[in-house]
From TrEMBL:
Pathway membership: Phytoalexin biosynthesis; 3,4',5-trihydroxystilbene biosynthesis; 3,4',5-trihydroxystilbene from trans-4-coumarate: step 1/2
CDD domains xref list: 4CL (cd05904)
Transmembrane segments: 243-265
Protein origin, superkingdom: Eukaryota
InterPro entries given in the database record: AMP-bd_C, AMP-bd_C_sf, AMP-binding_CS, AMP-dep_synth/lig_dom, ANL_N_sf
Keyword Membrane listed: yes
Organism encoding this protein: Scutellaria baicalensis (Baical skullcap)
GO molecular function: (E)-caffeate-CoA ligase activity; ATP binding; trans-feruloyl-CoA synthase activity
Domain AMP-binding enzyme C-terminal: 457-532
Protein name in the entry: CoA ligase-like protein 6
GO cellular component, one term: peroxisome
Amino acid sequence: MAELIDPHSGFCKSNSTFYSKRKPIPLPTNQSLDVTTFISSRAHHGKVAFIDAASGRRLSFSDVWRAVDAVSSSLAADFGIRKGHVILLFSPNSIYFPIVCLAVMSLGAIITTTNPLNTSREIAKQIADSKPVLAFTVTPLLPKLAGSNLPVVILGSDRAPSHELRIVATIEEMMRREPSQSRVKERVNQEDTATLLYSSGTTGASKGVVSSHRNLIAMVQTVVGRFKLDNGEQTFICTVPMFHIYGLVAFATGLIASGSTVVILSKFEMDEMLMAIQKFSATYLPLVPPILVAMVNHAEVLRKKYDLKSLHTVLSGGAPLSKEVIEGFSEKYGGVTILQGYGLTESTGIGASTDSPEESRKYGTAGLLSPSMEAKIVEPESGVALSVNQTGELWLKGPTIMKGYFSNEEATASTLDSQGWLRTGDLCYIDDEGFIFVVDRLKELIKYKGYQVPPAELEALLLTHPEIDDAAVIPFPDKEAGQVPMAYVVRKTGSTITESQVMDFIAKQVAPYKRIRRMVFVASVPKNPSGKILRKDLIKLALSKM
């Protein structure tokens, strides 16, 4: 087989598959292994694991593992948490986030996360689907769990009084517990479920992505190998949300395996982030493209105000960066390297990446296939696998690909084929050097400031308004946000509803990032013969009026 693979592109003519040009990742052969045990058993020389940027509180590696042991003991003994139970973690970034995740997964229980900006309606929907038995949250978010009947652990040291919720403990109380010496741990297999993260569904309903311990172990190996972190001397700033695949896999769990330090900010705020780089001499900074662009545009002011000389690498994901942005950033911030990555919740955040300044100079690329990853480029209509430099849907296969969608066989069957190939929904081509270029999305998610907004969800809500006959939602380009949701609305005969009334109607029901920011009334929504909205036509129309 190896002799049939083109060393330049990684393409094998005999089976139309692209193979990664990177060295395969080593995976443990012991099948009875959970990701927490795997991470804790990795040797490194790191001292400080996590720093809370706001309070300056530090957790050493031994503090973290002591806390994980205590919390998992408490979960098992005090709350009867067993293998297969689902635990909801509903919180902004926090020093407790990794402790909860690692403790839950060590028992073979399953962690599910949700966006703190989500509304009570959106959270209730996820709770109804995933059926958690316990929730961890912060005091300000308690009202959003009212009516859920879930026992709640407060992330902090103060028990908040609540008439509507059963507060059963605080995380600090659990962390002080003496780990039980006598407890019998259930055997966890690498194929068992570790996380249940919800991806934005293009069909309206978001779907629970089931990832195994093996998926997460492969992700940890990929992350640690990518940044060559075995010396444990690096400091990462974490402003990317830990409830999201990117934050959860890399910053809440993955980097602790390398001995690196992660400085945690509860949310993104430009000045706080830059102050943290200066204060903690950070070396790595993960960002989404709109923030990177803002840093290029305001470089003169920011460089006068902050000392960023410790920073040597910026990590970007979510959308390919232009040549102007990459060169502009490097020029204005003293030769900082920008590395890019491509991944999906369904691939545990792994897919392709640029791992060196030379690779990043291949402008517009998502990078080379990640280690141990295979790809196909498939013609969407015919299902024929294509060759080098031909555009089709990207399919991925490898050790980080999800097990499937939670309790949704139909969605699983339409996304994963019988051989384990994941249909990404992205139109791509792979060039003669093996670099992946994302051309367009078959899935029509709107990317607002790095958040994913499914148009179908907003369309379904618009159609519940008594004065709206039909509606379509599209992405509209925006300098600051990347894209914003724009609605085309057909009024019912005789209706006098205004644009602002429509926008307010949606704003009351969804998280701030999902709000409709632009709106146009139209006589009809263009559709194909089978009734699907012709979004491309509407996008063209919107762009022609810019």
